[in-house]
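Standup, Tuesday
Yesterday: got the pipeline producing structure tokens again.
Today: sanity-check two examples.
Blockers: none.

Example 1:
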Amino acid sequence: MQRWRCRPTELKEKIIEKSLTLFEQHGYHGVSVNEIVKACGTSKGGFYHHFSSKDELLFVIHDYFISYVLTNAQEAISASTHPAEKMKKIIQSFVKVFDLYQPHISVFYQESIYLKPPYVEAIMKKRKMYKEIIFSVIEEGIEKGVFRSELPVEITGMSILGMVNWSYKWYKRDGGKTIDEIGEIYIDLILHALLTDK
């Protein structure tokens, strides 16, 4: 019997990978657990060993990329002392997520309305943490005279989040710019908007 040839972590990744393809093709409600396990060559037991439900699978798909940007943002504020350097590192990792987790992001934004309330709450908690990190870096930059004091922190922070988040709508791996080049453009735009003459 060929089932369970993958190690547990490999099987989990395979389930996510195959479900992303199926969700993109048929939509979240157009795909059953049976179809996912068939595509993976595993059993329902294999699926439920890693995910309690298809709802949890959709949550994990989102959690992968929000955890990536949150962890990198936390590392940025710990590793750097200058607000501009912190912002640069945060933007670099933020933009990179649209390349690393492109299918995850695409599926999530199409299907997130189907998430159950407990999963929505968990997602919103991490998003709030990420937003607060960006706000805190802007506030620090203003306090140190590095960022322009006339810019409202909340509007500025939400503008950064909105601008970079919209990348999922247009970014293509075979486009004219690499993800790193796009990141540098965002950094240029954002820092030139934030920085004082100092």
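Example 2:
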Amino acid sequence: MPAKIVMIGGGSGLPVIIQPLVKADVDLTAIVTVADDGGSSGLLRDYVNIIPPGDIRNILVAMSTADQELLDLFQYRFQTHDDFLAKHAVGNLLIAALTEMTGDVSEAIARLAKYLKIKGQVYPVSKEPLILKAETVAGQKLSGEAAITAAHQALDSVWVGPSVEGQTIQANPDAVDAILSADMIVYGPGSLFTSILPNIVVPGIREALQATPAKQVYIANIMTQKGETDAYTDAEHLAVLNRHLGKPMVDAVLTNQSEVPDDFVDYQRWGEISTQVKQDPMAIEAEGATVVSRDFLLLRDAGAFHDGQKVASVLLDQLEND
């Protein structure tokens, strides 16, 4: 039987690793945050009262084996001068429509997965939209992913609350089952506080991550994130992850050893003032994890990204060597 890999995260980082893994002989599952409240996803979650669809849309496309023409339509985003539909992606609207038609977001995703001929499973971490909350290092409380990101404050911890007062937060049972039956859990790459941790702090998910026999791997970010992780080393990212997991759970950390040229990244274009994440192998080992240091760097579009193929190859090696 193919090895079972569960990817946990959100944002734009996860699809980069998923695309090459789809071509490998593995059983792939993505568990995606439902706390996004910005852009098209935020508008739809408010108007239609559904989980934010953007990250799910991107991962469905990353796992798809359908024709590129269909994927281009699914990803098409209306122009800003189209007042009513401005900035909405077609795929987001389809997820919203199918959720309303079926009354179940899992059924909506399953139908789209069939249409797009995906190889793998995509599960929202919860079937209800959640509100991300944070406390800064200075003790300030923040609410909402967009507000947390815009504040550019050094963060200490995050947690989630229900979007409807008094509602009980429940983990998606499919996500819990996938974690408990996995051979490998992969965190990231992606924003630590707003893409990865919002999944882990959902009640039921952390307990499953503590109980699973799976090998757990963290893909350390290449660049810091403005305000949230300024000057963080790879080991400091890991320490925050383990703290939110409740205890050291990560077995291996994939960390980039290649240098990002000082003059390559266009910080104005990406809206970030960031620096390269420095390596601290001794501190990683002190957290109980093995250091896997490689050239994972891909320079493109005036930015520094993970080379998905290189990362996927190392993840598959980790499976074989376990």
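Quick observation on example 2: The domain at 3-321 is CATH 3.40.50.10680 (Rossmann fold). The first helix runs from residue 13 to 22.
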